[in-house]
Amino acid sequence: MNLVTLLPFIVLIGAMFLMTRSAKKKQQAAAQMRDHMTPGTGVRTIGGMYATVKEIGDDTVTLELAPGVHAIFAKNAIGAVLEDAEYNRIVHGIDDEATDTSVVPDDASSLTEAPKTDLTKGEDEAPGLDLGKKDEDAPKGDDEPKDGKSDGEAGAK
Prior knowledge:
The chain contains three helices and five strands, in the order αβββββαα. It has helices spanning 3-35, 84-92, 109-112; strands spanning 42-45, 50-56, 60-66, 69-74, 78-82. The mean pLDDT is 76.
């Protein structure tokens, strides 16, 4: 046989070897992460639920989902073991780091309000934003259709 005919098979076998090797490394890293769980550690399940580890068994782990609410999960269902700071930031909203970033409001009302002026000095109030659609292309005059039919009536198009 010719080396050129064997080359695709060699490349295919090499690619399969590399893929199984990387998958094996990921499995070992996940198993090592699960082995570092201790009671009191914050975790995220593969379903996206955040909980605190209460007890660790051979193949199972008991998680506290809320105060007094416990559930038993398979160890393989643990997607990530979180550090205390990250767990507190996500679950409790406690941010240990002081940030100097601007705060974005929860609603858009502060973005659409007109700027306020001092009325005691005699200045007029600033005009509000008009967010409505302007009908510049709409025909002037009568809004009723010429044939007397409107939307929702029988025979209307």
